[in-house]
Amino acid sequence: MTRALVLTLLLCACSRFDEKRATDVGDRFAQYYLVEVNQEKALPLTSEHAPAHDRLEEELDAVRDLRAEGVELQAERGDVSFKRTYFREDTEGHSARIIYDIKIGKERRHMLVSLHQEESGVWRVTSFTVQQGPAPTPSR
User: Using only C-alpha atoms, what is the Rg of the chain?
Assistant: First the structure.
């Protein structure tokens, strides 16, 4: 096997989505919610009966008519990118927090995502907030 092929296979294996990694769930949630503007895809990544789940269901109700008319919400926002700037996992409390720095065109925002690890080992988003301005630098 060539060295390039081995490296490609390793990269593919390492980049596979794993619900038992908090960062994977948080990053996937951010992709669906921020970039794709797809609450339906983001919803299964949330804990039922948690604020994040309730918020997404409310947003889905609010945009249902627009989507039925064929409005592409993603196109309405322009280019969106995000970068994880902070991650902290509390293994005893089975919780994690992630902060993302968001760029929407020239505008800057940040999102705080809180996650909880279920008994099965799967991580789920419990709450999230999006605020104006660049991501703060958390103190350690």
Answer: 17
Q: Which residues of the chain are modeled with pLDDT < 70? A: 1-15, 67, 71-78, 138-140
**Maximum CA pair distance of the chain?**
53
Instruction: Choose the CATH number for 18-132 among 3.40.50.300, 3.40.50.2300, 3.30.200.20, 3.10.450.540.
Output: 3.10.450.540
Per DSSP, the three-state class of 121 is coil
| pLDDT attached to residue 138 | 66
Write out 28-76 in H/E/C secondary structure: HHHHHHHHCCCHHHHHHHECCCCHHHHHHHHHHHHHHHHHHCCCCHHHH
